[in-house]
Amino acid sequence: MGDKAKKPAGAAAGAPAAGRPAAVRNVVLVGHSGSGKTTLVEALAQTAGAVVRPGRVEDGGTVSDYDEIEHRQHRSVQLSLVPVEWGGYKINLLDTPGYADFVGELRAGLRAADAALFVVSAAQEAEAVAGATRAVWDECAAVGMPRAIVVTHLDTARTAFEAMTEVCGRVLGGDDPDAVVPLYLPVLGPEGPDGHAPATGLTGLLTRRLYDYATGGRTARPPSDEELPAVEAARNRLIEGIIAESEDETLMDRYLAGEDIDVDTLTADLEKAVARGVFHPVLAAAPAPEGAAQGLGTVELLELVTGGFPSPLERTAPGITTPAGAAREGIGCDPAGPLVAEVVKSASDPYVGRISLVRVFSGTLLPDATVHVRGHHPADGSGPDGAAAGQDAAHDADEHVGSLSSPFGKQQRAVTECRAGDLACVAKLTHAETGDTLSAPSDPLLVQPWPLPDPLLPLAVEAHSKADEDRLSQGLARLVAEDPTMRLEHNRGTGQLVLWCLGEAHQEVALERLRSRYGVRVDAVAHRVPLRETFGAVATGRGRHVKQSGGHGQFAICEVEVEPLPPGSGVEFVDKVVGGAVPRQFVPSVEKGVRAQAARGVAAGHPLVDVRVTLFDGKAHSVDSSDGAFQTAGALALRDAAGAAPIHLLEPVADVAVLVPDEYVGPVMSDLSGRRGRVVGTEPAGRGLTLVRAEVPELEIGRYAVDLRSLAHGTGRFSRRYARHEPMPPAVAEKLRERSLIDA
Questions:
Q1: How far does the chain reach from its first CA to its final CA, in angstroms?
Q2: Do residues 78 and 70 touch, judged by C-beta distance below 8 A?
Q3: Alpha-carbon separation of residue 709 from 14, 180, 459, 705 (angstroms)
Q4: Angle (CA) 317 321 326, round 5°
């Protein structure tokens, strides 16, 4: 960070070694889709000597994007780890997807990292920074994670480094925009035919040195007289920002008195402020031109990571408890301490089997050791008829650790151990799932889970063939175990198997992985919500089941009265028969028949609820009456009563909470009203956000996860929870029948 150029260690044959936690830097790259994160990782790997020639996202040749789906879509869909060495440090670069559907991979990267590089494109609109990027920035701020900003795409015609820096200060800096300032200024070369002057170098503001990348290398010189005024103005702002966050209270007085603070003091204070997460330098970066050994700004960025970002020793581990829930204090980043590691990602390899990427918070993980695996996956359906499937309850098992390796994209390079503060892959952990904790069998522990969004876009699936049906449950269970942002539900009300995802791209990847990884083909079918039926008025019905065809016949007659009950009452059965018209032994048979018919429905094939069925009369035969005959008569009586009364459809209603920036509150409320929703209130949620609460029929919010993203330009999020069933408007019910959306 003091602008001292370091030579890369070169491309080692094996994995970069981390001999001690102080020499490790775990850095996650965060940014909007298309901001250039993967390209930046390639450029950093080239500068560090880990790759000779960087790959291109468009060609599918990058280290990070090695999955077949990523090659086809030309974008990242999963977390990947690219470790490099620089100046005696091991830097674990965690490349995350920028698309909102894969935020689960981003959250896993945040858990594995100790600092974050926010990558923004100079060609992006301000809305891209103000949306999902700001939400993640606020998450990092809440836990004090150090952050820096890298501006990419300096070679585009719309480049405006200064303008994007101002946007980042305003949007991300919040109440302290002066804590987001450039550490270097781009140097522009001669204008091209399009009138654009590409960046050819960087000027270090603290040292007043210009680093020229125009010749393919990195040469230093002082700025020219024409460049100096802009450098001095930016330097003064940087120094004021550093001093404002300095722990040395005398530094500001010395600066205001005119003292020229030496560079070493400023650099030391800068590094401390960055490590504390209170100062956020802005840097510029661009990939190396053809034939060049390093990209613009990559040396400066690697120096910031090693000099300004904290080691695992300086970061507080997540909350750790015993399986019983008691807090376990005193566990730090000590290779000799008790083993505490967490599975941040799991995936299946067709040749190796399950591979688990783990972050070791304490202790040392060794191959061929036995570890205790503990997880927390509470089963929770999405509504009154939801039943989670494929997600185990908290499991508790000992497992044998296979080989350990350090991933470099899709490559796995063997390592002999993984010490506290580092990351490694473990092969063939049978029970371990994403989010599980690995600890010593003699001292089982549990790491507090990281927050994950609730998947709210349903995808109903059916096996494509009988052969696929046999493998479907296992394939879906593995898919959900690998990706905790998916939820599998078997809806008892509709009989459908529903995979809940975060968005359409998430659904597409899920179906593709089922096919390519697990050999399961599925068909997506229309998702149905569990409707109900109820009586709109009191009615009576008569069930007559009389058959005589020779030999033992069937005879049962019963009469019932059906009356509606308040919501949530279910089905009540009352016996008011007098005089033995229906023998006592057959009354339970009538009830059984009534309840069976209620479960099948009486009008549109949906379960009947919230009624009281009273048996008040009937007839029996001493020989031909039977249990089966009275079951049939009970069902017929209920159907007969349904023909004499209006039958109302009941639809599920959800409590919906939508969090959006203030400027989108009006459009969101209008949209909810258009979905037959009732807005019940709004409340401020801090920093320009508003929480809108509403009650909305579930029929109207099946695709709300997609629609809200479009409505609020990616800045909104929502939650939903089943509230109750209530009558559907007759016009809506009739329209659904006309469109054949209600199964008769």
A1: 70
A2: yes
A3: 44, 28, 18, 7
A4: 140
